[in-house]
Design a protein that fits this description.
The chain is 41% helix and 20% strand. By secondary structure, the chain is an alpha+beta fold. A hairpin with a 6-residue loop joins strand 7 and strand 8. The longest helix has 41 residues. It binds phenylalanine.
């Protein structure tokens, strides 16, 4: 390689922009460029020498041209890369600090209860708000003229006797009919009864628990309920009493009261001389097990049901049930919970 070519190649290599490269190209290969000038001198030479020199200069021209092109390609890619870097959008924009809303106290309570029972191996079972008499009443040992049916103001939907479920116990039936034991489920959702005052609304929420297995007895029921209520209210020695009661679908049945005081008109949970009813429970009636195709001589179980709204009101000191369902943004802002806080109990 001639010294001249080596110098030019170095010069080309050192160009740091397309503009500088273009300047070198014009200076070498342009109309009056150095190499173009050299080619112009050929005409004055005799034929033999012209061919020899012509070949040499053309090879030089070709080599310069190739190295210019190579450098141009390199600078172009870099220019693109630089452009892309300069234009990059930062997709790691941090989350905005302000919250966009709060969790309704019922949502919060549902999360708390679900996460507590999930740790004890319960899974959530879904039912539907619209039910038939079979699942809401008959299979639960509440036949047509049973007094328990008359005491509930049911919303019927049509002549086929479809209805809005009056309790989540209908989900017990749906689960037992489709799932072979052992069963451990929790069902949470809306229920409906035609009643309305400060502590009753036509739609409210219940949570239902059901455990079916071999050798299940009242002791399991008692410890499950006791541990849950103490945990939920955060009071280790929460006074509690299991009072004999009646439900057509459990035998024996009990209602559970927790200790409270109403001194000075303020309700305080966990101390005092008064009692507050909080849930219904019992051992699943053998007839109910049979209705669902489960042999009561092999399997037993317990069930419990409680009002979610009431549990929220008691824990968070909410005096009136009606605003729960009014969607007043000011009420929600005041009584709601940050969605960023963990609901784990
Ligand atoms: N279904 C009953 C009610 O609505 C509660 C309950 C559930 C009682 C399960 C016993 C067992 O009042």
């Amino acid at each position: 390689m001639s010294q001249a070519l080596q110098n030019w190649k170095e010069e080309i290599n050192q160009c740091d922009s397309l503009k500088a490269l273009e300047d070198v190209r014009v200076r070498l290969l342009g109309k009056s460029g150095e190499i173009t000038q050299m080619l112009k001198t050929l005409g004055a030479l005799d034929a033999e020498l012209r061919r020899e020199k012509g070949l040499e200069i053309n090879q030089l021209k070709e080599a310069v041209y190739l190295s210019l092109e190579e450098k141009r390609a390199h600078l172009t890619t870099h220019a693109l890369e630089d452009k892309l870097t300069a234009e990059a959008v930062d997709v790691t924009l941090s989350i905005r600090p302000e919250s966009i809303g709060t969790l309704h106290p019922i949502t919060r309570t549902i999360e708390e209860i679900t996460s507590y029972f999930a740790k004890a191996g319960f899974s959530v079972a879904e039912g539907s708000d619209i039910e038939d008499e079979e699942h809401n009443f008959n299979a639960l040992n509440i036949p047509e003229h049973h007094p328990a049916r008359q005491s509930i103001d049911t919303f019927y939907l049509n002549a086929e006797k479809m209805l809005l479920r009056t309790h989540t116990s209908s989900v017990q039936i749906r689960t037992m009919k489709t799932t072979p034991p052992p069963i451990r489920i929790l069902s949470l959702g809306r229920v409906y009864r035609s009643e309305s005052d400060a502590t009753h609304t036509p739609m409210f929420h219940q949570v239902e628990g059901l455990v079916i297995d071999k050798d299940i007895h009242m002791g399991h029921l008692k410890s499950t309920i006791t541990d849950f209520l103490r945990h939920y209210f955060g009071i280790a020695d929460l006074p509690m009493r299991f009072r004999p009661s009646f439900f057509p679908f459990t035998e024996p049945s009990a209602e559970v009261d927790i200790g409270c005081s109403r001194e000075g008109g303020a309700l305080k949970i966990g101390s005092g001389k008064d009692w507050l009813e909080i849930l219904g429970c019992g051992m699943v009636h053998p007839k109910v097990l049979t209705n669902c195709g489960i042999n009561p001589d092999i399997y037993q179980g317990f069930a419990f049901g409680m009002g979610l709204d009431r549990l929220s009101m008691l824990k968070y000191g909410l005096p009136d049930l009606r605003p729960f369902f009014e969607s007043d943004a000011r009420w929600l802002k005041h009584y709601g919970f940050s969605p960023y806080l963990s609901a784990g109990l």
